[in-house]
């Protein structure tokens, strides 16, 4: 940052402006702002004098209040911020952090709740689909059983085959173990 006589003049003018706005008096002039111990790193201290009174300097509390009240104008004049233009003994006027309109916990809660509701809806619909599929398969089996006709052989009706359990031939079933196995 190039600090030269023009920048010093602008700083003095801004401090005089701040003092005039604070005290509502037009007695503070640019010549009333004195810069002392200016270094190459743009570090200095300044004093504001009051020529209308017998007192040579304005109390520090008034200067601090005037700077605090007009700090944003001073920062804007130098295109700086509270982080780059530092006044010792004067707290910065950083704006408070912006808080979102909805708290973060509410957003997380909403997302988790939506996932739970979506899971429940998925389980209900998949259960309904399985139930419909099962009912459809059972009705198809019943339809197949109904389609089996009773056949007549030599005028004698034959038994329909039991498709579910199969057909048991009574000849090969052993009521008791009368015969020895080979």
From TrEMBL:
Q: GO annotations under biological process?
A: positive regulation of amino acid transport
Sorted keywords for this record are:
Cell membrane, Glycoprotein, Membrane, Phosphoprotein, Signal, Transmembrane, Transmembrane helix
* Organism superkingdom: Eukaryota
Q: What is its main location?
A: membrane
User: What is the membrane topology noted in the UniProt record heading this document?
Assistant: Single-pass type I membrane protein
Reply yes or no: does the keyword Zinc apply: no
Q: Which ranges does the record mark as transmembrane?
A: 104-128
KW NAD (keyword) present: no
Q: Under the cellular component aspect of Gene Ontology, which terms does the record hold?
A: extracellular exosome; plasma membrane
Q: Where in the cell is it found?
A: Cell membrane
Q: What is this protein called?
A: TMM27 protein
Q: Which organism is it from?
A: Menura novaehollandiae
């Amino acid at each position: 940052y190039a600090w030269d006589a023009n920048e010093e003049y602008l700083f003095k003018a801004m401090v005089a402006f701040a003092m005039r706005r604070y005290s509502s008096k037009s007695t503070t002039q640019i010549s009333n702002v004195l810069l002392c111990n200016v270094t190459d790193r743009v570090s200095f201290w300044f004093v504001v004098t009051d020529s209308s009174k017998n007192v040579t300097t304005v109390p520090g509390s008034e200067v601090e209040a005037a700077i605090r009240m007009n700090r944003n104008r001073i920062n804007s004049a130098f295109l700086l911020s509270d982080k780059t233009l530092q006044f010792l003994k004067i707290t910065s006027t950083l704006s408070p952090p912006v808080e979102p309109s909805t708290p973060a916990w509410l957003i997380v809660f909403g997302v988790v709740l939506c996932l739970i509701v979506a899971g429940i809806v998925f389980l209900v619909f998949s259960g309904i689909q399985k139930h419909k599929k099962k009912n459809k398969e059972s009705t198809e089996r019943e339809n197949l059983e109904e389609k089996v006709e009773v056949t007549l052989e030599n005028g004698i009706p034959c038994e329909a085959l039991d498709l579910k359990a199969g057909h048991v031939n009574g000849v090969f079933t052993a009521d008791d173990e009368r015969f020895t196995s080979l």
